[in-house]
Amino acid sequence: MNKLIITCALFLCCLPAIAQKAPGKWIQLFNGKDLKDWNIKIAKHELDENYNNTFRVENGLLKVRYDQYTNFDEQYGHIFYKKKFSAYLLVMEYRFVEKQVPGGPGWAIRNNGGMIHSQSAASMQKDQDFPISLEVQLLGGNGKDPRTTGNLCTPGTNVVMNGKLITDHCITSTSDTYHGDQWVTVSALVLRDSVIKHIVMGDTVLTYTKPQIGGGSVIHYDPAVKKDGQLLKEGYIALQGESAPTDFRKVAVFDLEPYMNDPVKLNQVIHWLQQTTRPKTAPTPKK
């Protein structure tokens, strides 16, 4: 028994050292200063045309804004980090502010998302609305009704849950509801095409496997890109602009690819990440 206790204590003490010495490191996708590491694609516009300054950096925040729009006109926007990832923990800290732009759809009020395993910005067609990807949906409460965040939406994709192929466009998580303009932390643990977990304020709220291309909910795409049935083992990370003004103060990735061939180390690092990324002060949720 004493040996077991000592072994466990040593294991726990070594976890930070494991993460610090290993090849994987935190990558700050948003550097707090500019958008030089990102590509922009807004529906009805060419690649990297940041129409009406939709995506901008102010006061150390990555902002989605519509103050220069007169009408949204289905100009769905996405901003893509320029590097692909396959196995990682993505951490996003966001809040909703201001009012929705005129012309925005009713479902998009206080609605944004982080796209994972996405096609590239360059491979999207000019009028394509959403990238073929998995959306970690970010929602804000309306002040009174339950409205979970960390949901899954699937533009041009499907997933497997409990051994069954899921073709529904959106799957609701088990998270709390977060009203107002409070900061909320949502993460995604992505392990290639094996398992993906959505995490809200440190708690796992949705799990699925075998992400793959298929289904609808995306228009004007290049048929050569939409290879239905193809498993998604890697892709780009993008943030949305769906008509709701949003602030992001953190968008970071811990690369887990160096550990994928060593299950023991992988589990150790994931455990360490779970302990160190859980918010110390939680916002006020309402069911």
Automatic annotation (TrEMBL):
The keyword Signal applies. GO terms for molecular function: hydrolase activity. Residues 1-19 form the signal peptide. InterPro entries: AL/BT2_dom (IPR010496). Keywords: Signal. Residues 25-252 form the 3-keto-alpha-glucoside-1,2-lyase/3-keto-2-hydroxy-glucal hydratase domain. It comes from the Bacteria. This is DUF1080 domain-containing protein. It comes from Chitinophaga agrisoli. The lineage of its organism: Bacteria, Pseudomonadati, Bacteroidota, Chitinophagia, Chitinophagales.
